[in-house]
Amino acid sequence: MRAIDRLRAGGRGIATESPYDLESGEPMHSTLDSDVLIIGCGPVGKLLALRLAKAGHRITVAERFANTFALPRAVTHDSEAARIFQAVGLAPDTMPDVTEPYDGMYVWQNAGEDVLLEVDWSGIGESGWYNTYFFHQPALEDKFQEILESLPDVTILRGWEYQGHQDDGNSVTVTLTDATDGTTRELTTGYLIGADGANSQVRTDMGSAWHDHGYFFDWLVVDVAPAPERQFPHIARQTCDIARPCTMVPGGPGRRRWEFMRLPHEKIEGIDRAEFAWSLLSRYGIDPTNAQLERHSTYTFQAGWALDWRKGRVLIAGDAAHLMPPFAGQGLCAGLRDAMNLAWKLSAVLDDTAHPDILDSYGSERIAHVSAFIDFSMGLGKVICLTDPDEAARRDERMISERADGSAPPAPPRPRLGTGLHRGAHGGTLSIQARVDAESSTPRLLDDILGGAGALIARNAQALAQLSDEDTDVLARLGVTVCVLDGGNGAGNFLQVRDTDGRYVCWLEDLTTDAVLVRPDFYLFGTATGPAETAEMVAALRGALDPTLVTS
Global pTM? Predict the structure, then answer.
């Protein structure tokens, strides 16, 4: 057993394990210090650590800042992110102090308050949660932190900065430096993941090139906690005003966010001041007497992605892998999808259920997916970031005319994964989640009944009749539960669930299939009709994981 080293832990009293003897500084054992070392303890790093640790792997997280970042950054998440939170025990309806649903339109208007565009953020999404939420990121990260601290195989090193790594093909040696006294330590890990943000040093050391869209706009981001008596309508609005393009959205329970674009003649240092922020807020009736200014900070909104997300035993995720302007509210959501995609594949590799080559599919799947959201976000940004009067007038005329045609408001994209571990016409698409009940239990969302993500869902037991023991064993090792919507005769040991609202039956009918194989990240591996095709689909998954696992 490794000793406990009470290092600085962000002032939170976290017991942080050290693989080093405190007197000699030498390693306390000759084996790997961890299965996975994650650089960066933001939401993406935390989610990766949670998913991998709960799968039974030893995880170390190194973070250069001694304290958890206490100020909000992202404020929006979608239905799929809500399902991700559900998967780690943080369903949105269990933390109303952290996140609240937004059931309405995302309105874009010009300076004269003519509506140019409405993006439909209303209703319940296919993941079983509202399509849009606004949340307070520090409070969410505190929830993640509490879970991490409860897990025995998670080591958090705060105040330690990544300096470099060496990948010898069998392990990765990572050099860390104490941010206070300059002490240097080396840790040896099976895999290194850089979740270290937009200026990722891990990405730089990997030598990954960057696909840059050349999109650069500076914005002042202002977060405010209005006094209880200063109520605002629960709306999300973009004001496409050439005098000062502006965003106004909820910032989570009890908070509001404004974003103001830097005009061409202004300097960043001139706008990134509390006095300037208050002057801009005054037009909305916000001042120091009725609100607390939680922060003001300038950001350069960018768009692009790394071309390589894996090199040997080193991978990147989140802002280290991609950047997008915030207008679609998808930046954090994209990073959470990275974590879900990578975690189940890396866990399968660490468990010897899959060959390491499957990790190449992480980048190929995610780049194609995230690039669709980047394009959507850039398209929205081109609407608002105009300061030329003539260009803005042409924009207004065109968009008002398009609205007059009566076309439906656009919804955020639902892209398919790029080439990777999926097959067929529906492989790589996002699965639905709906309510079911098992053994006369109270109806609940399927993932709660299953105890997690990942399922082989069959219309009836007959569709599963030709599954082999090897098939069910591999599915179990991946955390994929086999369940039957209509048990009938021959359901055997498979979980029988009742399709409470009929949504799964309708979904299978829409897909014209009898069975769907949902990966642990909620995306379809494929679909099958009939028992032979279902067995062949699972065998194909086994072959995709590792050809040596497929028996003749």
Answer: 0.92
